Fold these 3 entries.
Entry 1:
Amino acid sequence: RMYAAQALARKMELSFEASSDSVYVLGNPFFAGEMIANLLDNAIRYGNPGGHIIFRVAETPGILEIEDDGPGIAGQDRERVFERFFRLPHNADREGSGLGLPIVQALGRRMGATVWLETPASGKGLKAVVHFRVQGTS
């Protein structure tokens, strides 16, 4: 909820999609909340004003997606953005330190979750995918 006001200030539409009423994952609720907060903040901060962000609990158990229709990140830079202090050249004038995604990845590792970035099915923007552990997996 706290990111809805931030999205509205940038005239962005923030929507939520879930394939089920409840999903139980293994991990630390505080760490998971921080991961989600950083991913939402990035989608709002680096997405296009007037754009659309989808927060999705996927059909596959343990998968969370945050998708935007902004400029995206080129394939060759998708691993680099997980390096501490790395900033894309076209974002140098925007606020940020280059620590958001490295924090997301580090917190995920502590919980056994994995994080990656991909191009949405629409072919534009960026989709951050988090795969949390679910009961019965290691």
Entry 2:
Amino acid sequence: SSSTSSRKPKTGGMAIGAKKKNKKSKFLSGMSTSSSSTSTTAAVVDEGTPAAPLASTHVQVHEDLTITMKQDMTVDSMTVKGFLAVTCRDEDKRIIDVQCNTESIANGTNNDFTYKCNPKMDGTEFKNSGLLCLKNKTRPYPINKAVKILQWRMSTTDETKVPLTFNCWPESQGDGTTQVTIEYTLENTDLTLYDVTVRIPLGDSSDAPDIQNIQEGSFRHNSRMGFLEWSIPSINEDNQTGTLEFAMNGDEEEIFFPVEINFTAETLLGGPQIESVVDGTNEEPTTFSNDCSLSVNSYTIKFE
């Protein structure tokens, strides 16, 4: 389910993403000032009607998250793919340099993220100083077109890297019913997740599940498609864990899988923090707008 945030891109080269309590994430290396979150990569680079007026330079940063886990919480695979794209909206400001925070890149590298520049960028300069600048300044950026200038990715089977985990526990009661308990835990409390949905299959039965306990959010039973959807508007350190319990007729525990999870965030897992944008011809600071978004490409929990 796609979701677009109403939060508006901010403008300027301000300090980005101050964290509460100055905590250090285990693998968080990029923070956003703001975002209009979207759930697909294509939407991020779509130059449709913006949510707010954008500056002459707009920097878009997006990540897609793909996770496959087993019921026992072992990770089959977790992949993060991200990109940074620049859009120049002023004919006279098409040669620009984007300064990334080197500590955020080093933190990402330490957490197994690899970064790759567009061949038109000066890769050595980026590696040495975190500066994204054109190799050939006689060939400026196109006008009003988003150009990807940096990409990064990380793949792991380390369950400590999964930002949001689920303990899915169906238990046959021996009386022809099964009790199902699903508990989420926000492992990375530097993140705030939005529009969290947990879709649990219910097998062939169109019977409504008997909801016995729901600590966070709301539920919806789709009898036609045969699933229960648990929706939580946002998850952060204030509601770091939550539980849903229900009972169903039948004693087959595997019918409640695969569980599918979706969410968005405005904080990145490996994307670099943007410090400033300058005119590449005279190094004068340039006003810029910035949006950051993370979305789930696929997050599936399978029966063992």
Entry 3:
Amino acid sequence: TAPFVVAQDLGDPGCDSLILVSSWRANNVKIYDGCNGEYIRDLADSGVLRGPQAIFQDPQGDVVVVSESNHKLVKFDLATLSQATTVVSPGLMSNPITVVKKDDNHVYLGSYSSNEIIELNTQNWQKVRTVLPASKVHIEGIDIGMTMGPDGHLYVPGYDSDNILRVNPN
């Protein structure tokens, strides 16, 4: 197996952090040195990601990218930051775009095109339940930036409807 990647191995040896930035138009995630901001490399090989949006870490620390335009979630092994595995295939959700961590083993995943929010188990990558059914009644074009408020509700921006929807995930 490949050695565990630490920031010093990729960027400035004196820096212990990396910055990952999704680039929707470039169809990749850019890795930058967290101390001096210098570009290091792309996260994925060409063609793996299409329209990457949200980035998060799963319970094992692996990096997961929400790839909107090819309708999937792709996990990158933390040990190498290069081994890509599709953990959610097209068919579960059209145009996934945003994610919010619920707890150590679950996230809420939102869809731009269907305006749906589901709860996803990050241990087996299976849908647990629908939190907000697909509809264009209350919001259109769920966008990046969904967040959990201090009141326990999801606050969901609508790109096409120019609004913010408050959703009780329970």
